[in-house]
C-alpha cells in the first residue's frame, strides 16, 4: 500500500511539473554527455600519446659541408667519421637508448621526396643539403633532455631535435578542448542542479496540503520526502540515459564512421572505453538529483 502511494505521488508530481521536469532531463543529458565526452577525450589523448611517443625519435643531425656558418659546432666543416663513431659508441652505452638508426643524406633526400612529392618545394633541395643523422629510439621518450645535454654541444653535431615537438601542439590543443568541455559541463551541471532544486520546491509547494496531512498522521520525514526524491532521481536517470545515447552515437557516427575513415593515422579509442564510462554516467545521473532533492527538502519542508 505504501509503495503504491509513493508511486502515485511520483506520477502526480511529474505530471504537474512536466515542463520543468523536461528541462531537468535536457540539462542533465547535456551536462553528463559532456562529462562522458571529456572522459573519452582524456582516454583518446592518452592513447594517442602512447601511440605517437612510441614512434617518435630523437634525431642527432650532423654538420655537412654546407654548414660551416651555421654555428660553432660546425665551424670546422662536416662531421668526421671519427666524431660519428664516438657518438654512436656513447649512444649504445646509454641505458635509456633502445636502438639507433643511421640515416644518410641520400636516405634523408629520398624521404624528403616521398613527403613532398611533385610539389614545387621538392626541387629546392639537393641531396648534399640534407644532413646525415642518427635516429635514436629511447626506452622512455621523456628522457630526451639526457640526449640533448650530452650531444647538442659536441663538435660535428648541427642539432639535436626531439620529434615530440611536432606532435606536442596537437596534444596541447586536445587537452585545451578537454578543459573547455569540462568547464561547459560544470556550468551545465550547475544549471541542472538549480533546476532540480526549483522543481522539487515547486512540487513540494503544490502538495503542501498533502504533506501537512501526512505530517499530522505521524508519517516519517523520509516517507514524506521519498516521492520528491524519486521524482528527481527518475528525471536524472532519464537524462543520464539520453546522455548515454549521445555518447554511443558520437562514438559510432562521429568517430567510427567519419573520423576513423578520414584520419587513418590515429589509433582511436574502442568500445571498451565507452563501456567503462556509461555506468559512471548513469550512476551520477541517478545519485546527483536524488541528493540535491534530499538536501533541498530538508531545508524547505522542515519535517
Structural overview:
It is a single chain. The chain has helices spanning 2-16, 18-53, 81-93, 105-116, 144-151, 164-206, 208-216, 221-262, 271-301; strands at 58-62, 97-103, 133-138, 157-162. By secondary structure, it is an alpha+beta fold. The chain has a four-stranded antiparallel sheet with strand order 2-3-1-4. The longest helix is centred in the middle third of the chain and has 43 residues, at 164-206.
Topology:
Layout: H1 2-16, H2 18-53, E1 58-62, H3 81-93, E2 97-103, H4 105-116, E3 133-138, H5 144-151, E4 157-162, H6 164-206, H7 208-216, H8 221-262, H9 271-301
Antiparallel strand pairs: 1-3, 1-4, 2-3
Strand order of the largest sheet: 2-3-1-4
User: What overall geometry do the principal axes of the alpha carbons give?
Assistant: elongated
Q: Number of DSSP helices?
A: 9
- Report the structural category: alpha+beta
Give a concise summary.
The chain has 303 residues and is α+β, with helices and mostly antiparallel strands. It contains 9 helices and 4 strands; from the N terminus they run H-H-E-H-E-H-E-H-E-H-H-H-H.
Offer a few descriptive terms:
303 residues, alpha+beta, 9 helices, 4-stranded antiparallel beta sheet
Amino acid at each position: 500500500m505504501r509503495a503504491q502511494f509513493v508511486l502515485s505521488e511520483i506520477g502526480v508530481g511529474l505530471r504537474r511539473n512536466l515542463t520543468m521536469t523536461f528541462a531537468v532531463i535536457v540539462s542533465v543529458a547535456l551536462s553528463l554527455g559532456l562529462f562522458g565526452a571529456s572522459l573519452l577525450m582524456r582516454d583518446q589523448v592518452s592513447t594517442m600519446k602512447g601511440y605517437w611517443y612510441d614512434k617518435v625519435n630523437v634525431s642527432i643531425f650532423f654538420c655537412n659541408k654546407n654548414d660551416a656558418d651555421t654555428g660553432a659546432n660546425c665551424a670546422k666543416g662536416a662531421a668526421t667519421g671519427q666524431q660519428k663513431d664516438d657518438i654512436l659508441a656513447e649512444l649504445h652505452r646509454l641505458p635509456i637508448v633502445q636502438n639507433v638508426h643511421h640515416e644518410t643524406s641520400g636516405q634523408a633526400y629520398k624521404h624528403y621526396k616521398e613527403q613532398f612529392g611533385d610539389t614545387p618545394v621538392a626541387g629546392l633541395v639537393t641531396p648534399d643539403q640534407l644532413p646525415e643523422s642518427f635516429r635514436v629510439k629511447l626506452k622512455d621518450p621523456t628522457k630526451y633532455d639526457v640526449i640533448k645535454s650530452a650531444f647538442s654541444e659536441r663538435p660535428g653535431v648541427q642539432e639535436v631535435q626531439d620529434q615530440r615537438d611536432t606532435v606536442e601542439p596537437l596534444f596541447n590543443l586536445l587537452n585545451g578542448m578537454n578543459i573547455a568541455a569540462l568547464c561547459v559541463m560544470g556550468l551545465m551541471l550547475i544549471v541542472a542542479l538549480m533546476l532540480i532544486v526549483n522543481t522539487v520546491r515547486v512540487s513540494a509547494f503544490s502538495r503542501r496540503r498533502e504533506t501537512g496531512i501526512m505530517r499530522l498522521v505521524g508519517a516519517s520525514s523520509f516517507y514524506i520526502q521519498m516521492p520528491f526524491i524519486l521524482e528527481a532521481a527518475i528525471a536524472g536517470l532519464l537524462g543520464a540515459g539520453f546522455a548515454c545515447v549521445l555518447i554511443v552515437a558520437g562514438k559510432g557516427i562521429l568517430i567510427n564512421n567519419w573520423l576513423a575513415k578520414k584520419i587513418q593515422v590515429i589509433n582511436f579509442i574502442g568500445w571498451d572505453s565507452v563501456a567503462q564510462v556509461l555506468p559512471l554516467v548513469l550512476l551520477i545521473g541517478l545519485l546527483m538529483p536524488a541528493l540535491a532533492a534530499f538536501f533541498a527538502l530538508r531545508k524547505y519542508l522542515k519535517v
